[in-house]
Amino acid sequence: MVTPALSVKRRPVLWLWVPTAVVLANYAAQVPYGLHLYGPQAIARGSVPLLITLLWFVAGLWLLIRANAVGYWLTLSFLLADFGFYLYNLIGGWVHGYGLFFHVWQFNDLILWTVFMIGYANFLAAGFLLLALIHHHGKSLTKTVG
């Protein structure tokens, strides 16, 4: 008896989950970061761009996992923007005399330090995902389970 194609279970490859979790953790970290630095009004003003970019990432990833070509390009464009943003800030800090990864050594505010460490992890995760997507272009990002 032949199993119908719809009953085959597929899961995203493992290397996709860890960096995705880091990127999502970075989004979650923006809420306490905004509240800590700017108060509740920051959440009201900053929530729209945050939600738009989060939807950009989630929609792209969801479509990518389903082997939709639009998902590849959405995810790739998000990762280019995300990685580029953090790279720009990292280089900008260095050029202005703060040094690379300046915030690693700033322990005077635990909330800010934690959010910046998550941001640095996001920078590395976005770079990894970017390279992995380029390397796996045209290949399946899921594996059959069962």
> What's the order of the H and E elements?
EHHHHE
Helix content: over 70%
* CA gyration radius, whole angstroms: 18 Å
Number of domains: 1
User: Spans with pLDDT under 50 lasting ≥5 residues?
Assistant: 1-5
Strand order of the largest sheet: 1-2
Helix-strand category: mainly alpha
Q: Describe the global form.
A: globular
State mean pLDDT (0 to 100 scale).
84
Number of strands: 2
- Our count of helices gives 4
The N- to C-terminal Cα distance equals 17 Å
The proportion of strand residues reads 5-15%
Largest sheet: 2 strands, antiparallel
Keywords:
2 strands; globular; 146 residues; single chain; mainly alpha; two-stranded antiparallel sheet
In short:
By secondary structure, the protein is mostly helical. The chain is 71% helix and 5% strand.
